[in-house]
Specification:
The chain is an alpha+beta fold. It has 14 helices and 17 strands. The protein starts with 23 loop residues before the first strand and ends with a helix.
Length: 459
């Protein structure tokens, strides 16, 4: 096995208090393609054995698909190639996750139109409640969805039945896919996002080039064990790669071939007494993750993406981090129902109250404004040396990215990805006494490095 360790870890301006970050493995050395193909599309398994810091045998496992064609062809191939995993994820693992959410504060924190469903006797029938809520959301938002995404979900349902065979009901699977794709509209992701360029990356091997990070904090559940690296090679757009979960059509993490990369974080505020510090919108607009997907598929620049976001009917408040190849810069977009506002390195502190760091736009994992000094501290300590590899120090020190972390190097066209690991109960630790509750979170685990051009070519 090949490790790639930090070359510049011990530079003078890096604090000696930072531990050595997790190692990086080359993904292509651990990828095995399956004989299964659907048209020009195919799937692979990524498996890496390693020894963890406790001296124990450990492993990284990810799924990978290369999807080729128009939206219907890609949707069908996704369903057919991942049919078994989609069935297990959606019909077994997600119901277990729903059970961990209800009853309790979750219902109290929902908008009234969703919370009313609990009054119909579903508050203790977790799967029924979640699926009723998500299906209701789908009904409100379908008219705002691009037809190709609806086509893709319907083709995916047909593909699942082609993969499962037997008496599979395509109509039921189409509804199941449409339903679960609304989960991000119902359950919010905390997360951290930042981009660094110019003077912040001046001492790296690509001086001044853009480095972008997306760290997904989503808590426990089955998600990490079903991580999917999905390359979409579109006939009518540009190619892009997503880090997502089986059956998900929208995007939460990804970068495109010739345009942009995305990060995402829920826009929670620390002085808001409504629900869980949430800024509610309305369920009559483009689902957030579908808007992010559109950016990956069609936007060539940050400006393209931001104009698109202003043009659509929006639902719920999130931060969208958008970097692009053209400018080698990164914006954080305040994406709200009422308006879109773009922040850069000099203005994001209006929201976060964090120190201004030239050529670094960042928002941490907490409701805003945040009083946690850890992210600006590590970014300032690494200033000038913020390479893709050094982002591991930042995410580990801030403790962000339990589910997954992705970092994009726009000059070298590389991506590193780390995923967490959970036990059978969906927890990030191997021991019953919860003695080390963060040991399996993504920021403490090894990364895999992908060559983006190879991904976009299906290699």
């Amino acid at each position: 096995m090949m490790y790639i360790f930090l070359v510049a870890l011990l530079l003078a301006k890096v604090s000696a208090d930072y531990p050595e970050p997790p190692p990086i493995f080359q993904a292509n050395e651990h990828t095995e393609w399956s004989a299964s193909e659907v048209g020009k599309s195919r799937r692979a398994a990524i498996h890496v054995d390693f020894t963890n810091p406790a001296g124990e045998a450990d492993a990284i496992d990810m799924y990978r698909v290369d999807l080729v064609g128009d939206s219907k062809e890609r949707g069908f191939a996704h369903g057919a190639l991942m049919a078994q995993e989609i069935r297990e994820f959606m019909l077994t693992k997600l119901p277990e996750y729903y059970a961990s959410m209800l009853p309790g504060d979750f219902i109290a924190g929902l908008p009234p139109q969703i919370a009313k469903l609990a009054e119909k006797g579903l508050e203790h029938k977790t799967t029924e409640f979640f699926e009723a809520a998500m299906w209701w959301v789908y009904g409100q938002e379908e008219q705002y969805m691009e037809q190709e995404l609806v086509d893709e979900m319907e083709a995916m349902g047909a593909g699942i039945c082609a993969g499962l065979g037997g008496s599979c009901n395509t109509t039921q699977w189409v509804q199941q896919i449409k339903t679960v794709n609304m989960l991000p509209e119902l359950v919010r992701m905390a997360c951290t996002a930042f981009g660094a360029w110019g003077e912040a990356t001046a001492n790296t091997k690509n001086p001044g080039g853009l480095i972008q990070v997306r760290a997904l904090d989503f808590g426990g559940g089955p998600f990490v064990n079903y991580t999917l690296i999905a390359t979409q090679r579109s006939d009518d757009g540009q190619s892009w790669v997503d880090v997502k979960f089986p059956g998900l059509v929208g995007s939460i993490t990804g970068v495109s071939q010739s345009g942009v990369g995305i990060s995402e974080k829920v826009f929670m505020v620390s002085d808001n007494d409504r629900g869980k510090n949430m800024q509610w919108g309305k369920y009559d607009g483009v689902p957030d993750v579908f808007a992010l997907r559109h950016i990956l598929e069609y936007s060539k620049t940050r400006t393209d993406a931001e104009l698109y976001l202003r043009s659509i009917t929006r639902t719920f408040a999130i931060f969208m981090g958008i970097g692009d190849y053209a400018s080698q810069k990164f914006d954080l977009v305040s994406y709200k129902r009422e308006a879109v506002k773009v922040y850069d390195d000099q203005s994001i502190n209006e929201v976060t109250s964090m120190p201004v760091i030239k050529d670094v736009t960042y928002v941490d994992k907490h409701p805003q404004p945040s009083g946690d000094p850890s992210l600006p501290q590590v970014l300032q300590d690494l200033y000038g040396d913020l390479s893709m590899e050094n982002t591991r120090i930042a995410t580990q020190y801030h403790g962000t990215g339990d589910v997954h972390i992705a970092a994009y190097d726009y000059t070298d066209r590389q991506m590193i990805v780390s995923i967490g690991r959970v036990n059978c109960e969906g927890n990030y630790y191997p021991t019953e006494d919860n003695s080390d509750e963060k040991v399996w979170m993504a920021f403490n685990r090894p990364f895999l490095q992908f060559d983006l051009d190879e991904l976009f070519e299906g290699k």
